[in-house]
Fold these 2 entries.
Entry 1:
Amino acid sequence: MSSKPYKLASLETRSEPTLVTIPPCGRGGKKVVFGGPGVVVVAGPCSVESTEIMELTAAAIKKAGGRIIRAGAFKPRTSPYAFQGLGAQGLRRLAQLREKTGLPFITEVMDTRDVEMVAEVADVVQIGTRNMQNFSLLKAVGRTHTPVLLKRGLANTIEEWLMSAEYIMANGNPNVILCERGIRTYERATRNTLDLNAVPVLKTLTHLPVAVDPSHGTGYTHLVRPMARAAVACGADVIMVEIHPEPAKAISDGQQTQDFAEFAKMMTELKAVARAIGRKM
Ligand code: PEP
Ligand code: MN
């Protein structure tokens, strides 16, 4: 028996990597595998935007070699006066986009009452940093079969994060991807401190795929590309970034969002880094 408090998530219980697979969907869609030899890039606006912006973004992702789009329909905002997301309408827009482009999507669920609706339509459900220890929500997504991207709580240890993954797995859903998105430290030069130590540490503790989000992890567009390169170099299986055709006009998180040229440049660099360490992209 495993000596760790997390049992199902532990490498002591299972020594082969867990592959989280999304079957082909929509027009011309391709299978996506998280945790395999290929590094997967997820990109998209912070919030679901207009159909036109979503279509332009999907085209830019496909052109650059990204495999899946991200966008929040339910948004956890620090201010109750800030835009809260398009909700169910946003989900419909993402589903239509998938039908048209073949790109699967990741979107956040914040409320246990919405889990069924979101898990039914999304290819991957995201648990945001603020909900990493919302145990009711973890149990609810654990009872679905939809893959879960579990973001690290902004003040949580790696062990607490693995215990949250354990909640999802213990409730029947083995398809968990861990996502480092920066933690809160005394440093104010960046929005968060991207803890890339977590990547090789997790690789010694768990078989689950590891993602890194350098957009929230740094908070500034010009820091995203270098930290994405570093994340691939230290062993991340997935890179998730915020992109938008005109970041200055993005509904949320524009200051950390890449435009398509910056994203394409990052993709070229990530392919080179992946190749250098014997991985594909
Ligand atoms: C997001 O991905 O847009 C988001 C809200 O992330 P986090 O929960 O990491 O802040
Ligand atoms: Mn965001």
Note: The mean pLDDT is 97.
Entry 2:
Amino acid sequence: MDVTLLAIESSCDETSAAVLQDGVILSNFIAGQKVHEQYGGVVPELASRAHQQNIIPVVDAALKQAGVHKSALRAVAFTQAPGLIGSLLVGTCFAKSLALGLGIPLIAVHHLQAHVLANCIAEPRPAFPFLCLTVSGGHTQIVLVEDYLNMKVIGQTLDDAAGEAFDKTAKILGLPYPGGPVVDKLARSGDPRRFSFPEPQIKGLDFSFSGLKTAILYFVQEQMENDVNFVQDNLADICASVQHRIVSILMRKLKKATEETGIKEVCIAGGVSANSGLRKALAEYGEKNNWRYYIPDFQYCTDNAGMIAYTAWQKYQKGEFSDLSVSPAARAPFAQRTA
Ligand code: KG4
Ligand code: ZN
């Protein structure tokens, strides 16, 4: 099948466009938004405006990088849900206009489904059924993946997401946003066993991170009362200890999921899957428990249109298109296929 698709991702604070040809990604252009750094978190209205400014140059760059003219496109895909509604609207409206202008179909993609399928973009690919731990700034889920478009959530966070736990820790420590990569970097030279943070006792395959966040806050406040330089002098050890706990919470539940389902084909996805501690722990658990484990390439871990393009390619082959009445949604479960 000779098919070229354009995909757009704009669910949060990255404007991204990708071009895919017959299942192969030719370009994956990602523009971040620096404007949020000074606020210590994503400001939704500013994100929408930055998407408006970025979207045309980003799409243009993705087409140029791929060496593809827009007249060669056979469909336009976009992230429809979940995400910040204003940000999603920018991508949705742009995709609709382009599809209408070129007279080609539209493909609506679920952002979390796409994070999971980032694992299938390149060899080695996991075999179905597989389990995926999706850990991002807004979500923490264990997903049972029966097929490209047939997946269900079997465990999820009851409060904060794993990425939020990293970001909030960074905020408590006075580190910049997004905190995950900064904590990760500092943790590399720290002692993960120096400070012990509590592990929540949540039943089943669900997670909770809000107690950990509070424990870190109280711990830091208490230590600072005795020593104002505590954070400064122990930064690497605090980061390593927090990361160690977040990773152990995630990995224990993932192990439980493999035991309950009997599935030993295991993936991770989402922004936090870029974390070096989590990647290392997955390898360790994998070796010990005879899992076949997979991690997407770095460029497909954090938000990117490449994963949207790949998911759209699966939908294209099944004829799953949307008409122009499709609208974005801030929240939405995976669409379960019955056939
Ligand atoms: O998937 P993503 O780019 O966006 C969402 O869909 O949320 O994930 C962003 C999250 C942020 O919380 C960020 O701090 C976290 O992923 N993150 C990391 C690392 N890189 C990104 N967390 C820990 N270690 C990293 N290396
Ligand atoms: Zn994401």
Note: The chain has a mean pLDDT of 96.
